[in-house]
From TrEMBL, chain A:
Top-rank taxon: Bacteria
Protein name according to UniProt: Amino acid/amide ABC transporter membrane protein 2 (HAAT family)
Lineage of the organism: Bacteria, Bacillati, Actinomycetota, Actinomycetes, Micrococcales
PANTHER family given in the database record: HIGH-AFFINITY BRANCHED-CHAIN AMINO ACID TRANSPORT PROTEIN BRAE, HIGH-AFFINITY BRANCHED-CHAIN AMINO ACID TRANSPORT SYSTEM PERMEASE
InterPro entries: ABC_transp_permease, LivM-like
Claim: Transmembrane is one of the keywords in the record: yes
TM region(s), chain numbering: 7-25, 31-52, 59-78, 84-103, 115-144, 156-175, 205-228, 240-271, 283-304
Membrane disposition: Multi-pass membrane protein
GO molecular function: branched-chain amino acid transmembrane transporter activity
Chief location bin: membrane
Annotated organism of origin: Promicromonospora soli
Keywords assigned: Cell membrane, Membrane, Transmembrane, Transmembrane helix
Cell compartments where the protein resides: Cell membrane
From TrEMBL, chain B:
Record GO terms (molecular function): ATP binding; ATP hydrolysis activity
Top-level lineage group: Bacteria
Xref: InterPro entries: AAA+_ATPase, ABC_AA/LPS_Transport, ABC_transporter-like_ATP-bd, BCA_ABC_TP_C, P-loop_NTPase
Keyword Nucleotide-binding: yes
GO CC entries: plasma membrane
Keywords from the UniProt entry: ATP-binding, Nucleotide-binding, Transport
Domain ABC transporter residue range list: 2-249
Protein name (database record): ABC transporter ATP-binding protein
Annotated transmembrane regions: none
Xref: Pfam families: ABC_tran, BCA_ABC_TP_C
């Protein structure tokens, strides 16, 4: 093993960059949002890429996780660690429940069904006072375990990094397993998967719940970080952004979600800086954002239909084989 | 081994299968033939579990399977080879065959994440078995290639390997020779012959009379949803009802190819 796998190098570089960034950047809000998006999109990429099921409403499960934390801490006074653990569990259980009817839909219908779910969750949050009503829930306490309490942004970012690593690790293991093979198989042909002994409906439900658990975890963490949860915290546009991140990064790849989240978040941040120059009209920001989404999707679908990660991987493989190397991924 | 007892199924008031009864003995290769629209595919789908019978029963090794969903039938030992190219795209040949082992393995999503020793053992066993099945159909050398790039004949052999990985009590093949070139068809016939020598029970639904008469020990002939003959290849091909219903048109059709 004298040859170093370039992918491992990239992973190490990304990990080091992720660990250094919280100590050199000033305001960590952007970095935190990016990491949370990466957690959500990793789950979405698993759902869309491996299992072949669409979701335009992943924000619904982010919201469920956030509300779990908000209600658990402010209404019931539960310890922060407990509610953060509960957030993905509640989101996953919610997904398993609504998934029974929802996952009977396919393709575009499922996409719209999940979008409708998000709108229903938003409506429930704004009408039920228990869930915050129109004003939302504020005053969520800082996260902490025992006596140590998070007093600034940095520990949140480090926690998010650790959880992202955990999510990637779990995803990697699940994809490369008996269960994961069944999931990939049903994306190709439900009939053939069924006849090979894969319980298709249950498999879809489990993977839907799992992607919702990731979203709920990110939502729970964001509730502590912000620390405020309202129906407006989870706009439909954000759920579309998750899909764009997943597609741009590369559906059905382990690192696609992270790459897409980093790239699209950075791009949006740059656009934000550009459009907030004083001499420019205030409407420019949203216009630029929508235009960028459209442009990104068109460019990605035209030139990298598989997304960035698979395109780079195959380009690297070609480069290696041209050099006569025996390196394989 | 496989008992189909007075099974009926209609579509829009027209019977596609009516009181179909047949019994396949252990180790037997049974051919199902019939002209277009005879109800062969309906019978295949009824046994596979993709559609349900309106009446009648289907049993495998003494257990009723006709109310089970398709994936549970796989667990009971029904192995399926589809007519279409139903391999799993984006997965290697080996992974395709490993999916077939779902029918007799159990590790779930929690085991996948935690990977206890039992899960690791099972994974190793699945891999070894899948390699064995690939080698039985002669595709082991291509184990790491993507499945969707294979020619049709090899995709069908891959499906056979996938079905074998489920340790089937009975192997159902739906028109396995359709769309194949002559050489591929010959290879497939040899493969089925080998499976027969290994004692595999096979239900062969096929349009190609020549292929079925050369491979099957007994043949059931369907016409307009009913069984019109049942017997050895020579008995069946000399049956006047069969000649009238099928061979007159079928023989010339087979000669066309």
């Amino acid at each position: 093993m004298d040859r170093v796998n370039p992918r491992n190098v990239l992973v190490v570089v990304a990990a080091v960059a992720g660990c250094v960034a919280p100590f050199v950047m000033g305001d960590l809000t952007f970095l935190m949002r990016m990491l949370l998006a990466a957690i959500v999109v990793t789950g979405l990429s698993l759902l869309m890429g491996y299992a072949g099921q669409a979701s335009l409403g992943q924000g619904a499960f982010v919201a469920v996780g956030a509300v779990t934390v908000a209600v658990g801490t402010t209404r019931w006074g539960l310890p922060p660690l407990l509610v953060l653990v509960a957030a993905p569990i509640v989101a996953g259980a919610f997904a398993a429940l609504v998934g029974v009817p929802l996952l009977r839909l396919r393709g575009h219908y499922l996409a719209f069904g999940t979008l409708a779910l998000l709108l229903m969750v938003q409506t429930a949050m704004s009408t039920l006072d228990f869930l915050g009503g129109a004003f939302g829930i504020s005053g969520i306490p800082a996260f902490g375990v025992g006596g140590s309490v998070f007093t600034d942004q940095r520990p949140y970012v480090l926690l998010a990094l650790g959880l992202l690593a955990l999510v990637l690790f779990v995803t990697h293991r699940i994809v490369d397993s008996r269960f994961g093979r069944g999931i990939r198989a049903l994306a190709g042909s439900e009939t053939a998967a069924e006849s090979a002994g894969v319980p298709v409906m249950r498999g879809k439900l489990v993977i839907f719940a799992l992607s919702a658990m990731y979203a709920g975890l990110a939502g729970g963490l964001s509730a502590f970080f912000t620390p405020y949860v309202s129906p407006d915290s989870f706009p439909a546009l954000e759920s579309f952004t998750y899909v764009i991140m997943a597609v741009v990064g590369g559906l059905g790849t382990l690192w696609g979600g992270v790459v897409g989240a980093v790239l699209v978040s950075t791009l949006l941040q740059v656009l934000n800086l550009v459009s907030s120059q004083p001499q420019l009209p205030p409407t420019l920001g949203p216009i630029l954002q929508y235009a960028t989404y459209g442009g990104l999707l068109v460019v990605a679908l035209l030139f990298m239909p598989g997304g960035i990660v698979p395109t780079v991987q195959s380009a690297a493989a070609r480069a290696v084989s041209r050099r006569g190397g025996a390196g394989r991924t | 081994m496989l008992t189909i007892d007075r099974v009926s199924r209609s579509f829009g008031g027209v019977y596609a299968n009516r009181d179909v009864t047949l019994t396949v003995a252990e180790g037997e290769v049974r051919g199902i033939i019939g002209p277009n629209g005879a109800g062969k595919s309906t019978l295949f789908n009824l046994v596979a579990g993709h559609i349900r019978a309106e009446s009648g029963t289907i049993s495998l090794a003494g257990r009723r399977i006709d109310r089970l969903p398709a994936h549970a039938r796989a667990r009971q030992g029904v192995g399926i080879v589809f007519q279409g190219a139903r391999v799993f795209p984006g997965m290697s040949l080996l992974a395709n065959v490993m999916v077939g082992a779902h029918a007799h393995t159990r590790a779930g999503v929690v085991a996948a994440a935690l990977r206890p020793p039992s899960q690791r053992r099972e994974e190793r066993a699945i891999r070894a078995q899948a390699e064995d099945c690939l080698s039985r159909v002669g595709l082991l050398d291509w184990a790491s290639r993507p499945a969707e790039g294979l020619p049709l004949g090899q995709q069908r052999r891959l499906q056979v390997a996938r079905a074998l990985a489920g340790l089937p009590r009975v192997l159902l093949l739906d028109e396995p020779a359709s769309g194949l070139r002559a050489a591929e068809r010959q290879e497939l016939a040899e493969l089925i012959g080998e499976l027969r020598r290994d004692g595999t029970t096979i239900l062969l639904v096929e349009h190609d009379v020549g292929l079925v008469t050369s491979l099957a020990e007994r043949i059931t002939v369907l016409d307009l949803g009913r069984v019109i003959a049942d017997g050895t290849p020579s008995e069946v091909t000399s049956d006047p009802a069969v000649i009238k219903a099928y061979l007159g048109t079928g023989a010339s059709h087979a000669a066309d190819r």
